[in-house]
């Protein structure tokens, strides 16, 4: 029985002071290394967070505008004989402007109606310096006076410019215009592409959208 009693005493022996200090020192070094790693990763993630949020906003707005244009170019039943796009004079917050116009049968989620939504919505896409990219809209079936301004919804306040790109049919070059242009006979000429410029602080991006087929010179 004595040998057994000696083994139990050895097993029950605690850590010495040196062993405890050594274990605490190793644990402190591990915790310090862990916190250093976590904080460094957080700093790296935080520096890129604003850029990622900006890019996500740019992508979302670009996809939505592209969806609006694509849906406007779909066959539209009774009004399908008309061109899907035109140039429309619109009363904006800063005065009258000639904007790219199109029509949507069922509206869009950006268009908030006080009552039941009406079909055959006339839309115009424009840019205002103090507001950003704006969608102006109104249903043909609404009762309104000729000079009443349409409703307006800001698609993105981060848009700092909307440029129209025209392809040169006689060469392989592009011409960029700040406003929609007219042809030699005074007719409005629809652009081939839209260039949207986004900017927030030091971040800036441009996106180009091709106008869906169905355009051409449109008299207005």
Set down the secondary structure blueprint.
Layout: H1 2-11, H2 17-72, E1 85-92, E2 95-104, E3 121-128, E4 132-139, E5 151-156, E6 159-167, E7 174-177, E8 181-182, E9 188-189, E10 193-200, E11 203-210, E12 217-218
Antiparallel strand pairs: 1-2, 2-3, 3-4, 4-5, 6-7, 6-10, 8-9, 9-12, 10-11
Concise overview:
By secondary structure, the protein is α+β, with helices and mostly antiparallel strands.
Provide a descriptive summary of the structure in words.
There is one protein chain. This protein is an alpha+beta fold and 220 residues long. The protein is built from 2 helices and 12 strands. It has a domain of 153 residues. Strand 8 and strand 9 form a beta hairpin.
Overview features:
single chain; 220 residues; alpha+beta; 5-stranded antiparallel β-sheet; 4-stranded antiparallel β-sheet; 2 helices; 12 strands; 30% helix; disordered C terminus
Strand content: 25-35%
Distance between the termini: 112 Å
Assembly state here? single chain
The number of distinct helices, counting runs of at least 4 residues, comes to 2
């Amino acid at each position: 029985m004595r040998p057994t009693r000696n083994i139990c005493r050895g097993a029950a022996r605690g850590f010495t002071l040196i062993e405890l200090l050594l274990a605490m020192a190793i644990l402190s070094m591990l915790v310090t290394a862990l916190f250093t790693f976590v904080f460094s990763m957080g700093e790296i993630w935080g520096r890129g967070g604003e850029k990622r949020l900006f890019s996500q906003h740019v992508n979302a707005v670009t996809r939505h505008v592209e969806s609006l244009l694509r849906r406007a170019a779909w066959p539209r039943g009774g009004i399908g004989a008309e061109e899907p796009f035109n140039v429309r004079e619109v009363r904006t917050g800063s005065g009258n402007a000639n904007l790219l116009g199109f029509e949507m049968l069922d509206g869009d989620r950006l268009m908030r109606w006080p009552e039941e939504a009406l079909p055959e919505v006339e839309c115009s896409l424009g840019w205002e310096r103090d507001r950003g990219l704006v969608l102006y809209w109104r249903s043909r079936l609404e009762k309104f006076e000729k000079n009443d301004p349409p409703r307006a919804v800001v698609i993105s306040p981060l848009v700092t410019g909307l440029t129209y790109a025209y392809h040169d049919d006689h060469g392989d070059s592009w011409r960029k215009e700040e406003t929609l242009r007219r042809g030699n006979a005074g007719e409005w000429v629809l652009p081939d592409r839209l260039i949207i410029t986004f900017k927030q602080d030091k971040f800036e991006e441009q996106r180009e959208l091709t106008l869906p087929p169905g355009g051409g010179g449109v008299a207005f």
